[in-house]
Design brief:
The complex is a heterodimer of chains A (383) and B (327). By secondary structure, chain A is an alpha/beta fold. Chain A is built from 14 helices and eleven strands. In chain A, strands 5-7-8-9-10-11 form a six-stranded parallel sheet. The longest helix of chain A is centred in the middle third of the chain and has 30 residues. Chain B starts with a strand and ends with a helix. The chains are: A alpha/beta (383), B alpha/beta (327).
Chain lengths: 383, 327
């Protein structure tokens, strides 16, 4: 991108109530419909009366599909109206980053809820057979976004390492039982084979379809990248990324967040064809403006630089875990602080820390607008 | 002597999960939630008895994480933000040490349904070991790690005495941090010395059997120092431990062999577990066999409840077979 400090988001945006409820076939309240109209007007969405009519209709497959398209249209428009340079559809077509892929792939069975923390749980699947591509899981969403924006598109794609890390590995562990005696070695080898089968059978075929359909930039989401911080596991992670993107004519980037960056930094320079590391920083940072040496949230940048990472950063300057709306001056100073630290401002893409799905549209919109203003201030400061 | 037991929290059943979610959304009362926990605890206890486990624990269903009862109930500690629980996709809340740590009431007993535990089987209680609790906390008060670890060991000592009085005969101290961390051999020695001193304080004057249960890391890292730790038994995660290194040492203490994998939904074949257990037992006890426990490598609550139940049955059948073959 020619412009300095292009702005982007990371992936998800909250789903509006009218989309969630009606997708489940539940009746909407007047408030829900008013919300759809309110945002529709605010964003200048065309043919709003069609949506209102759709929302009053009974449940059907074609209505479900139309609902996905409408909420995607809204999300794209939110990003565009906020002024972002690079957009997607807020992952409105996906139930969630893990389930969405696993449910559309064969070889898996959901075993039920396991704990995450406190009274929060997640639905965990087991791999019970060799994973096989069943149907496309991102293509329709991509095509719709492509038709509905003129902006550059960055396509978020849940990475294989994270899918494997979040899944019980019954098929491969069973396959190796008896063959390898040490349990630890066996589990590792089982994981490795699961990972590379998944990449070959499921991940790469989908990437291939996306590229054929015109995708130019795919962001591999790997929140689990540093879950196992040993060298052996980190090498496996890097190998899995490299195998995922190998030989494709497309730009790739990696998103990771709330993780151990000391570990990631050590291995990031070995990622091939990774044009950008999109990372969460704002959550670790203070809220005072200023570009001095004291930006605690951005200390880790140094680690990546020292270990020889020379590609771009998707620099998280907006915290997605708080309703605090970062003032443009704070965004500006976070950008300028890092621009100074890496002495090449052209490597910075201005970004949110992570997807905005836990914030309301109102908060997300305000945060994004300020992010865009902050990037503009930073550009002016360097003129 | 070969026995079996669980080594941590049980999973919450689907029914209980629904209740906890309903409670969070304000749809059921605290009282209804409490009743659900009580009912589910009964189920967990019955499942252990019917599987044929030799010791019974209460399932720790209310524990939000392994440290939480202490984080919430000791004076001087506040509940911090979420942190990753070792290399799992689960999270705990970091204890923040703000002030002198004081135990003003029973911690574990107040979380336990004593009246639901069976009269005819020994009871097992599971507590965080001092080293792990201290390593996972943020110390804003004590001068150094040693000062805090000895203080926490005193707390554990009081807890153990209280639990013994209430009828528990077996205490497990869970110490994943000890084997999970990557340390150089030299600092491993210092660490072991610190752990040894803390354990001395923790078990001083207690009468129950004690086990230091390690998991999520290679037990052989703390050998040979661990052989002298002042506990009766040493717990080993066999899904993380190098068998060959383990077999180089000769044990006198008892061992708790984490042979069932709580982090995998694949239900093990008892045959294979028996083979592996026999091989390890033969190597580490050349002359006199110590007490041996067959157990899950860590808390079963990484699994859905139905899988945990199946795995308890595997534990028990492997144990029976071992008893027959080694007696």
């Amino acid at each position: 991108m020619n412009k300095l400090f292009p702005t982007q988001e990371v992936g998800s945006l909250a789903k509006p109530r009218w989309r969630i409820k009606s997708y489940r076939g539940k009746p909407l309240s007047r408030e829900d419909i008013n919300e759809a109209v309110h945002w529709g007007r605010k964003l200048g969405i065309e043919n709003l009366e069609e949506l209102v009519k759709l929302l009053s209709e009974g449940d059907s497959a074609s209505r479900k599909r139309a609902l996905l398209e409408w909420s995607a249209k809204y999300a794209i428009r939110i990003f565009e109206t906020a002024g972002l340079d690079i957009v997607f559809d807020g992952e409105q077509w996906r139930s969630e980053m893990y389930e969405h892929v696993i449910r559309k792939t064969t070889g898996f069975k959901f075993l039920g809820y396991v704990k995450s923390f406190d009274y929060r749980y997640f639905n965990k699947a087991a791999c019970i057979d060799k994973p096989k591509y069943a149907k496309s899981f991102y293509l329709d969403e991509f095509l719709f976004t492509k038709e509905n924006t003129k902006k550059e598109i960055k396509m978020p794609f849940t990475g294989a390492y994270t899918l494997v890390d979040w899944t019980f590995d019954e098929y491969y562990e069973k396959k190796f039982s008896g063959e390898i005696m040490g349990f630890k070695r066996r589990k590792f080898e089982a994981k490795r084979e699961f990972l590379f089968d998944l990449i070959k059978e499921v991940i790469r075929p989908e990437i291939s379809k996306l590229i054929d359909a015109g995708a130019k930039w795919i962001q591999i989401d790997e929140p689990a990248a540093t879950t196992n911080p040993t060298d052996e596991e980190m090498k496996l992670f890097v190998e899995s990324f490299n195998e995922t993107v190998k030989g494709f004519n497309c730009a790739f980037s990696l998103h990771n967040c709330y993780s151990n960056y000391e570990v990631l930094a050590k291995h990031a320079c070995k990622l091939r064809n990774c044009s950008q590391l999109s990372l969460e920083f704002a959550n670790r940072d203070g809220r005072q403006a200023g570009t001095g040496n004291e930006r605690t949230g951005y200390k880790a940048i140094k680690l990546f630089e020292e270990h020889g990472f020379h590609e771009n950063y998707g620099l998280g300057v907006v915290d997605v875990h708080t309703n605090f709306v970062e003032p443009p001056e704070l965004v500006r100073d976070r950008i300028l602080h890092v621009a100074k630290a890496i002495s090449d401002p052209s490597r910075i893409y201005v970004s949110t820390d992570c997807g905005l799905r836990t914030r309301t549209w109102e908060t997300s919109f305000r945060k994004l607008k300020n992010m865009v203003l902050g990037a503009e201030l930073a550009r002016k400061a360097l003129e | 002597m070969i026995s079996c037991y669980v080594t941590g929290a049980s999973p919450r059943s689907n029914e209980l999960i629904k209740k906890t979610r309903a409670y969070e959304r304000g749809k059921i009362s605290k009282k209804e939630l409490e009743e659900s926990f009580e009912k589910a605890t009964e189920t967990v206890i019955k499942a252990q008895i019917s599987a044929g486990l030799d010791y019974v624990a209460d399932g720790m269903l209310r524990w939000q994480d392994m440290l939480r009862p202490f984080t919430e109930n000791l004076k001087g500690i506040t509940v911090g933000s979420l942190r990753r629980w070792f290399n799992n996709n689960t999270f705990y809340r970091k204890p923040i040490i703000k002030d002198y740590v004081k135990r003003e009431k029973d911690v574990v007993i107040n979380m336990t349904h004593l009246e639901k535990l069976p009269k005819n089987l020994p009871w097992k209680a599971i507590l965080p070991a001092p080293y792990t609790f201290v390593s996972l906390s943020e110390n804003q008060y004590y001068r150094d790690k040693a000062e805090f670890i000895f203080k926490f060991a005193e707390v554990i000592n009081e807890e153990i005495k209280g639990l013994a009085e209430a009828g528990f005969s077996y205490i497990q101290l869970s110490d994943p941090a000890l084997v999970y961390e990557q340390s150089k051999p030299k600092s491993m020695k210092d660490k072991s010395a610190l752990v040894n001193d803390a354990l001395e304080i923790a078990v001083k004057g207690t009468t129950t059997e004690t086990c230091l249960q390690t998991f999520f890391g290679d037990f052989s890292k703390i050998l040979p120092e661990a052989l002298d730790f002042p506990v009766d038994h040493l717990g080993i995660d066999l899904y993380e431990t190098d068998f060959e290194k383990l077999k180089e040492y000769s044990f006198e203490k008892g061992v708790a062999l984490g042979l069932v994998d709580s982090r995998s939904s694949l239900v093990e074949e008892p045959d294979e577990l028996v083979t592996v257990a026999k091989e390890i037992i033969k190597s580490i006890y050349q002359s006199n066999m110590g007490e041996v426990f067959i157990c899950p490598n860590c808390d079963l609550d990484f699994l859905p409840w139905e899988k945990a139940e199946e795995k308890m049955k595997v534990l028990s059948s492997a144990t029976k077979r071992l008893r027959e073959e080694l007696s």
